[in-house]
Amino acid sequence: MVYIYGMARRLTTTVRLDPKDAEALARAREDGFSPSDLIRKGLHQITSVPSHDRRPPSTCLFVSTDPNLGEESELFKGKE
Q1: Max alpha carbon distance in the chain (Å)?
Q2: Mean pLDDT within 56-77
Q3: Which end of the chain is more exposed for a tag (fewer CB within 10 A), N or C?
Q4: Number of folded domains in the chain?
């Protein structure tokens, strides 16, 4: 029996799929991919993209049309 020291534990999760994604999963299974393999590959692909290419997370609860929203230059005028 071989035991690998420090073997990582695996997380079990549940994923809800819409019909289109469920069909894609069925096709992937026919091609020999397990659902776990697909999730791992998808996570790796998404997280390997440099962060500057991704938009910051958004709740979409607030949308501003003010291009100067959050501008703080007026607060620090003459304080240099």
Answers
A1: 73
A2: 76
A3: N
A4: 1
The pLDDT tens digits for 11-24 are 888 889 999 999 98
DSSP one-letter code for 11: P
In a domain, 33, yes or no: yes
Residue 35 forms part of a structural domain:
yes
| Burial class of residue 58, CB neighbours in 10 A (0-12, 13-18, 19+) | exposed
Q: Which residues make Cβ contacts (< 8 Å) with residue 51, sequence separation at least 6?
A: none
**27 lies in which domain range?**
20-49
Burial of residue 25, with CB atoms counted within 10 A of its CB: 0-12 exposed, 13-18 middle, 19 or more buried:
middle
Q: Which residues neighbour 15 within 8 Å (Cβ) at sequence distance 6 or greater?
A: 35, 39
pTM for this model (two decimals): 0.45
